[in-house]
Design goal:
mainly beta; single chain; about 15% helix
Length: about 425
Amino acid sequence: MATVLPPPSKRQRTAIAEKAHDQQTIDAIPSDLGSVRVHFYDQSTGQPSGAPVAIPVADATVKNLELLLNTLQGNDASERVPYRFTFGADGQVVDIVNDIYRALLKPGLRTTEDTISLHYTPQAIFRVRAVSRCSASIPGHGEAILAISFASSSSSRLATGSGDNNTRIFDTDTGTPFHTLKGHTSWVLVASWSPDDTTIATGSMDNTVRLWDPQSGQPIGQPLKGHTKWITSLAWEPYHLRQSSTLQRLASSSKDSTVRIWDSISQRIDLVLSGHKSSVSCVRWGGTGTIYTASHDKTIKLWDSTKGTLISTLTAHAHWVNHLALSTDFVLRTAYHDHTGTIPSSDKEKIAKAKQRFETAATINNTLTERLVTASDDCTIYLWSPPSAPSSNAAIKPVARLLGHQKQVNHVTFSP
């Protein structure tokens, strides 16, 4: 049983209050010092901002100096700019941290008879909204939104799947809808952009996968049929692994315990990965050619994406495996797109750039390594480091078991 400390006595509370009062008295600025003249100068240009201003020493704090300078510059209350104030004389630069009294008057660097020249530097030129605040609310769907995916090329376009059976493409810069993709007959559970940004794949509760042209909003071909239950996850083949520029393969996992590999051009099933004994909750297509699947049968399986054969089975979780993520997810999803916005001109250059970005992200200690993390209903997360060319005879053990959650872990992802 934990020991509970008794509350402080009246004498102890009185002593604490007296100590706090004495501390405030010590730190307080004397009120009999009168005023001091302050002249503001722009640090970048050296130009003065108005004439010298007389300020009571007791009120010459950094906060009040900022308020005064903003007023002199005509800034509105909503456009207040925080400043850093410094004083320089005889080759010595002093930062005004709290107030002028403690920084200059008390040490004897200046007296109340002097005119103090303060140089100011803006600390924040742009207004920044807190991350916790909503930037925009984009209406459009008639039911709950169940899936969301940014475009591979930039964050300016967003695809969302909803319980209203529709997928919508939004322009996030303006907060307006771009296209409404209609065709599914039940909830849209997952949406995914292809790495080259030319196709959107959606999986639905109607047991089908549909492909869409994001530019026109029109469906590409007919629905991909083959699964007997709803679609749980989608994963495109990494761009640098494509055998040709005209071959785009897509992996879909389903509640029916299988994963199907589709040729999105001919819209035919290329491979069927069967081996799980329960629903396949998540699928990822790794940059080394390995397909990773997580299932409610408590296992994670590694597959050869060329032959469709099982490579290895990872067993560590004690309950359903709900989700998995790769350390290279971001570069695989964005392929040859980067922050510069420069797109290679030829297919060969695109593949080379996508491969170079992947190898850079996956290289750890001069070794090509794709780290894997899995989340489960057993309230744990496991970190794995499968070899780049895993063998079916080699047992793969987790690198770490991450604890802390008190309930089921439903989603996990790596930082880009």
